[in-house]
Structure formats: structure tokens, C-alpha cells
Design brief:
Blueprint: H1 21-30, H2 32-47, H3 56-76, H4 85-107, H5 109-112, H6 114-117, H7 126-153, H8 164-188, H9 191-206, H10 221-227, H11 230-243, H12 249-274, H13 277-280
Helix pairs in contact: 2-7, 3-4, 3-7, 4-7, 4-8, 4-9, 4-11, 8-11, 8-12, 10-12
Length: about 280
Amino acid sequence: MKPSVPPGPPPELRFKPRTNLAGAVRGVWRARQLVRTLAERELRARYKQAVLGFAWAIVTPVALMVAFSLFLNRFADVPTRGVPYPLFAYVGLLPWTFFSAALSNGGGSLLANSSLLNKVYCPREVFPLAGVVVAGVDGATALLALVGLFLLFGVGPTAEAVWVPVLLAVQVAFTVGITLVFSVSIVYLRDVRHALALVLQFGLFATPVAYGMEAVPERLRLVYSAVNPLAPVIDGYRRTVLFGQAPRWDLLAAGSLTAVVVLVGGYAYFKRLEGGLADVA
């Protein structure tokens, strides 16, 4: 006879991890100084002994702008409503570069700081959030080139740019949510780290960065905006800053809903898997 398997513990004694997102957010707020410290450490390590220093934050979007202007726009003839194409492309590149840098920095942050996970008690999300902050600093630096383009072409932002903070909130919410998902997934499944570069390369061309929203058929724009919230955000930046128009509120509402779902769901997913990070990192 096979030995009987002892029954498991009664249901009332079984451990069931619970996620208190409100309490977790309060914990992150209390650890905000640590986020700042980690971001400062990353910035100093990145630009230490670099001749150009923070100017490297401008090189990537400017180089892509030049490449798009010389090759893509010449052959595709992207409609820009009279706005110079370099300016049109750069306004799209700024939010994309922030998203890409945040996902690259924050996505690998838990692995990069694995030595600290078993030594320091802190909310684990401070590491990917620090990566987002670093991307934000680089993005703010890259705005200097946008100012230069305005001066070069003799134009300036329109009065409708007052809607930029709304667009920025949607952009940051979606970026933070996606970064949290990738950061914890990479620890448990290392293949995700290799797939991330491919996802970002595909996303650059699947998002209206080098082209406008007009390239997407009107009947598909609402679904497209819900699937990719960066699309209505980038379109909104161009409409408000360059064209003097309000954002497409229907498209932005669809993107905002997805961004909120990704942020809340991504944070819950992160906290759900947080307990085993020290064992597998």
C-alpha cells in the first residue's frame, strides 16, 4: 500500500498574500527620498567621465529626427499641416524617448540591484521608479533641443499647449505601469529582457512618432488609441503645441482608460510577485 499523503493545512491557516495598493502607495511616498537617491546614483554613474555629459540625453532624439528627416520623410512625404518636418518629428520623439528610456532603465533595475534586495528593506518598486525618474531627467534635458528648433524655424508653441499637463499625466501613468510589469517579469523570466529590445524597436514604428495619426484609418483610431495610449498622447502634443488645436478627446479618453488599467493592474501584478524577488533575482 502506498503511504497516505498527509492532508494540507486547513483553509483558515493557509497563507494568502493580499495586496493593499493604497498602503503600498503610501510606503512608496515615504521612500521617495530613496527613489531620488537611486536616480541620482544612476545619473552620476551614467555620465561620469563622459565628455558630453547630459548632452547625451539630446543626442538620441536628435539623431533619430535627422534620420527620419533625411530618409523617411523624403520617401513617404509625411503630411505635417505646414509644420517643418524636423519639428513635427521631434515633438513625437520626445515622449517616445522618455517611454523607451524608462522601460529600458526600469525594466532591468531589479536585476541590476539584486545585491540590495536581500540586504535592504524597502518597497521594491523604488528601483523601477528610479529608472522612470532618470528617463524624466533626460527628457527634460532633451527639451532644450526643442527650444532650439522653435528658434531655428521661427515658430513657437500655441496657446492650446495648456493641455500638455493632461497629456503628460496619461503618458507617465502608462509608462510607470508598463515599467513595473516588465521589471518584475524580467526577474522571473529572463527571456523577457531579450524580448524588450525587440518590443521597443517594433513600438517605435507602431506608434505615430515619425508619422501622424492621419496614417491610421479613421474607423480604427479609437481601437488603436486604446491599444496604444502613446498614440493619442503624441497626437495630442502635436495638436496642442504645433497646430493650435485641442486634443482629440475621444481618442485621449480611450488611451487614458487603458493607461489607468495598466497602471493599477501593473502595480497589483508587481506587488503580487514582489515576495519572491529575493529568491530568484
